[in-house]
Write a structure and sequence with these properties.
By secondary structure, the chain is α/β, with parallel strands linked by helices. It contains ten helices and 15 strands. The protein has an eight-stranded mixed β-sheet with strand order 1-5-6-7-8-10-9-11, with helices on one face. Strands 4-3-2-12-13-14-15 form a seven-stranded mixed β-sheet, with helices on one face. The radius of gyration is 21 Å and the shape is globular. The chain starts with a helix and ends with a strand. It binds 2-acetamido-2-deoxy-beta-D-glucopyranose (NAG).
Length: 333
């Protein structure tokens, strides 16, 4: 016969077991609150990708225009879509590359705001832990690079996803050395990350959901689609009614719309060296814009509207798009 003590024991075991299991399943993404600074609650954000080349390949020119536009729009923060330092990330936290390609390039007043950065495959070719290290924040307070995280800005939530570990070829082709510390075993890392992103999107009550990763989902440029993300990440973004997926990786500016017009795929990978002319044919109903030169992107977000603009190296707007949403989850173009 079971005594009261046995039952108590079982209950305690159940509670402990549930806590442990829950913790494993919900290894939550780090969450950062960054509310809008403008009184009307709107947000303005700059997005740049594939940039760190000591100012060369027009990186400085793009940076200068980002500064001007950043000032005009009074931007809240800056998003960087990965490949922060070419060709092989940072050597360590003391690497002068950090100053030469970041601090000494993005010098405008308006760019001295918080930067939220993800890692690209070139960053994984160097010392990843150096880019993630809090020491860099001490060296330049606007720097914040994490693997996967959430920035909550009230009306909009940004979900940053570490996409490099998804791509199988990096693990098998042996062309480069990658710093996989903290990533192996890969299958576990990727499946936990997908669960975390899925759950975070599920729990989000923000009017707008924007997902950011380095790698393309869809792209007509040199790298093309990333099949692993098409297979594994895209179904989650569609199911959770994500509004925008923003990436770098292909060195161009690009806007692809999904067939039903809901999810938009935006490439902002024009921070320095661009890939001239390297374009594949694409369904013209989906391809809203393609530019194989340098530049950057802006986002303007209000409760009912998101506006996207692409700028070239001269600071000229070369593509604009916007969408409105009046009831949560209902899209009206
Ligand atoms: C810099 O930008 C200009 C204008 O788009 C372009 O003509 C030139 O080729 C670019 N330079 C490099 C090194 O990419």
């Amino acid at each position: 016969m079971k005594t009261m003590k046995d039952y108590k024991c079982t209950i305690i075991h159940l509670v402990v077991y549930t806590l442990v299991v829950f913790e494993k399943v919900a290894a939550e993404l780090q969450r950062i609150d960054h509310g809008p600074s403008k009184p009307d609650g709107s947000l303005d954000i700059l997005v740049v990708g594939d940039w760190g080349r000591r100012g060369m390949y027009n990186q400085s020119k793009v940076a200068f225009q980002m500064g001007k536009v950043g000032e005009e729009l009074d931007v809240d923060f800056i998003i960087a879509t990965g490949d922060n330092f070419y060709d092989h990330g940072l050597i360590d936290e003391e690497d002068p590359m950090f100053f030469e390609s970041f601090t000494e390039v993005y010098t405008s007043n308006s760019l001295q705001k918080q930067w939220y950065l993800v890692l690209g495959n070139h960053d994984y070719e160097g010392n990843v832990l150096a880019q993630l290290s809090p020491v860099l924040k001490e060296r330049d307070s606007k720097w914040l690079c994490l693997r996967s995280f959430i920035v909550n800005s009230g009306i909009v939530e940004f979900f940053f996803v570490d996409t490099t570990p998804f791509q199988e070829k990096y693990f098998i082709e042996g062309k480069h050395n990658y710093d996989w510390r903290g990533v192996l075993p890969r299958e576990e890392y990727v499946s936990n990350l997908l669960k975390d992103v899925d759950m975070a999107l599920e729990e989000s009550s923000a009017q707008w959901k924007i997902v950011i990763g380095h790698h393309t989902i869809f792209s007509a440029s040199q790298h093309g689609n990333t099949q692993e993300l098409v297979d594994q990440l895209l179904p989650i973004l569609e199911a959770k009614e994500v509004d925008l997926y923003i990436n770098g990786h292909d060195h161009c500016l690009q806007h692809i719309s999904s067939q039903d017009g809901r999810l938009q795929f935006l490439t902002s990978g024009g921070g320095s060296k661009a890939w001239k002319g390297d374009t594949n044919p694409w369904n013209p109903n989906e391809m809203k814009f393609y530019y194989d030169g340098q530049g950057f992107m802006t986002l303007h977000v209000t409760k009912n509207k998101i506006g996207v603009a692409f700028y070239d190296v001269f600071g000229v707007i070369i593509h604009k798009w916007s969408t409105t949403k009046y009831t949560h989850g209902v899209l009206e173009q």
